[in-house]
Amino acid sequence: MPFSNLLMLRGTPAVKIYISGLYCGPNPSSGVGVARSLRLAYPDATLIGVDYSSRSSGIHAPVFDDVWIQQPWARLDLDAYAASIRDRLEPEDSFWISCLDLEILWMAQVLGPHPRLLTPSVDALDRIAKPAVPAHEGLPVGIPPFISTTEQDWTLNAFCRRHGWKIWLKGPYYDAVQINWWPSFLSLRAAFQSTWGTEKLFLQAHVRGLEESVSFSAYQGRLLDAVHMVKRDITPEGKTWGGHIEDPVPDFLNPLRDIVSALKWTGGAELEMIRSPAGELWLMEMNPRFPAWIHGATIAGRNLVGRLVEAASGIPMRAAERQSNEFARIVVEMPVRAGYPIPPLQEPLNGSQHHSGKYPSGMPMLAHRLQAMRNHERPAVTVDPEPVSTPAIVPASFIEDILGADLDKVQTPHRILLPRTAARSFNQLAVAASAASSSACAVRAAYSIKTNPDERLIELARNAGFLAEAISELEVGQALNQGFLPEQIILNGPAKAWPNPTVAYPVHAIFCDSVDELRQVVQRIASGEDLAEFIGVRLRGPQLISRFGIPVYSRLIFHEMIELLRELPQHVRLGCHFHIASSNFGIGQWWRLYDSSLRCAKSIESCTDRSVECVDIGGGWFPDDFESELVPKLGDAVRQAREALPNLRVFVLEPGRAMVQHSMAVAMRVLEVRKYMGFPQDIVVDGSIAELPLAWQFPHRILERDCKTGDWQPMPRGMARILGRLCMEDDIVAPNVQLRADIKEGELLAICDAGAYESSMAYTFGRGKSNGL
Q1: Which CATH code, of 1.10.630.10, 2.40.37.10, 1.10.287.110, 1.10.357.140, is assigned to 396-416+661-760?
Q2: Is residue 303 a contact partner of residue 34, using CB atoms and an 8 Å limit?
Q3: 528 pLDDT higher than 70
């Protein structure tokens, strides 16, 4: 006789349901919402709330008949706990609905499949693992670009730049935080790894749009019901605080039904999505449980939780009554449950809330338990092994150049010029500039002296036919001493005349950084001085937050700039300068700002009734991006400029760090190997952030020399550190490296990608000398 019929004969069509995950803070679990929906579906049911901390506020919700508080996951005897759960699920009227992702994973392995454990199987969980969510095939959704953080830092940094530093760092189970530059990624990655006990995190590109969800209920592969929720209000953390409930469209519901069948899914689930302004749906993740807003669906007459218990028990639920198709959350006070007083607050850790406050149900602790099981090869949980790191790819010229330096006879730390590597960059750009030039418009490259004033690099630039870009009279003097003519020099920046004006005029171009400077230049020209072939302005558009350039988005300032440009004699040719670091804003944003600057230059032409004959662009390009994204498109960029400015005569490209960042390395020797349990944990070297001041700003590729063979090999990423010689907390040359077990004092390392500001901004410290001025 069916179980439901037997209960009806007894006159007790009731069930006992255990519901775990009761936290109700700003980032809530769904246990209380699940219980509220079940109370409406089964008024006589016995609802038992389960949690792992007395700080989970949902234990005080009156909807529960009783609560079962366990030891924290760090102290819980998992085998005994699993046996206890089996005992409680032995009666045919008992069921368990878990609202905790990691608990679901653990239960699926040690308890499932179980007819009264209403959670998905291990195979189903594997198929919805984020970020790829393999089971999504067939749904009208895309998966945002992502990358595992187990990749080399060089590759991760390239991913961030490619997506304009609009990136999310996400944990394997919970946690997502937006990052906007490399140092924040390093610190947050370390925090996430500590919290979740794994290196298996991932970066995902940000998708602009509004958040939506589809939640469904299924039993043994049969889709019971599904709702579509559009967020109407959110918390600062992005959690739902109000939403609109409607039916999923057939184009979504039909493939979802097939997916549920293929996964043999049992339990609740939520597909979190973002709809872009173009109407595209992007799937962010698929959670293996009901969402925290699930009672909002019940308010709309769709009791998904009740449908699940109905399918599993065979007992008809009380039909849900539609009250509204929208819901809102409110904060209410309620009496504390007898016997479960709220523990007193602990002293904040380092001025912030400890993770136990953010995750009172103890998911980080469970994550560490699962990771420990994997490390001890216990088959209690299916968890992929930690990947083995492979080194970043290093150009062959790096090693060839380093082999040409006799490092055994130099005092380290020692900066090494990589001549073949540097020459290749200058020659490549010279060829590209020549190919993009025409009889109507010359394309010229300009070397930024401030980026690295090394005489050998300046000579390479001059020999390659570059112009010289200077920001001070001292740099002008350096260019002249290196053989540049005044007409080959571009003056930029806010303090061009410092420290004393020279007589090296006329120069090729002067770009004024402010209206006040433009006024001074106009007055000097009016008094008869011949300053430059081109007089121009540096543009600062409304999209930029910068201290440099004329804010052309200000109507009054733009008008004043135009009036001054009109005062220039007709023989003086006009120019416009646009400078923004693509490595900070992303390649796509750089091209959009480039287009915006051309439109501004066109407006200057219209308002002055004069032609803009010189455009100067550049700065801040990461070498890899410059070679892959700008150099191949240089001809297109020039054509775009010529279409906007038909009388353009000179197109100047200032690549800055793209020319020289990879032209130098810093050789360092190992002073000390610090071991833990017999394995190298850190090494101290004789180099430091004094020689590598931007060590934390972006990843640097590292080579190590084999003391036996003399071969240079790339150093993989790992959990060890290279510590500098200085008595400074932040003197960490590299925070994530993998050290050989046999590494010894005296071995040589070469920190690459150190030829731009790492060279020009290096300073003297810890050498017993005064820096002086």
Answers
A1: 2.40.37.10
A2: no
A3: yes
